[in-house]
């Protein structure tokens, strides 16, 4: 897996390239957010009468963009809530909302 490294090699990567890589921990958190937002929670809410497409449109992008921004700026780099954190959160949320809307409501597979 290119770009994903173990937690103990982060400092070496940052010193060599100046960029913060995705660690296995952050990758697992983002994958877990995707599973929760697009499979688990919509299935549970479907039992409560909420349409699956609607819950996927709301939960999937929110959980993934939140997990992405939090892991990049708090877990991997410990930079905190900087301007980049908010930009990552908003841009990834908007992009995921668009992709989810096109796939779930328009039937467009990207």
Keywords:
72% helix, mainly alpha
Helix content: over 70%
Tell me the span between the first and last alpha carbons: 23 Å
Q: What is the 3D form?
A: elongated
Strand count: 2
Enumerate the strands of the largest sheet in spatial order, edge to edge or round the barrel: 1-2
Give start-end ranges of low-pLDDT stretches. Answer: none
Describe the 3D structure.
The protein is mainly alpha-helical and 110 residues long. The protein has one domain (4-104). The chain is built from four helices and two strands; from the N terminus they run βαβααα. It has a two-stranded parallel ribbon with strand order 1-2. The protein is elongated and about 50 Å long. It starts with a strand and ends in a 6-residue tail after the last helix.
Provide the fold topology:
Layout: E1 4-5, H1 10-17, E2 22-23, H2 24-47, H3 52-76, H4 83-104
Parallel strand pairs: 1-2
Give a short overview:
72% of the residues lie in helices and 4% in strands. The protein has 110 residues and is mainly α.
């Amino acid at each position: 897996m290119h770009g994903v490294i173990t937690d103990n090699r982060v400092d070496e990567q940052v010193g060599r390239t100046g960029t913060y890589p995705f660690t296995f921990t952050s990758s697992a958190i983002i994958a877990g957010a995707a599973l929760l937002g697009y499979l688990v929670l919509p299935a549970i809410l479907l039992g409560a009468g909420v349409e699956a497409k609607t819950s996927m449109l709301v939960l999937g992008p929110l959980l993934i963009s939140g997990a992405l921004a939090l892991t990049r700026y708090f877990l991997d780099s410990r930079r905190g809530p900087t301007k980049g954190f908010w930009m990552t959160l908003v841009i990834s949320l908007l992009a995921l909302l668009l992709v989810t809307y096109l796939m779930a409501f328009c039937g467009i597979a990207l």
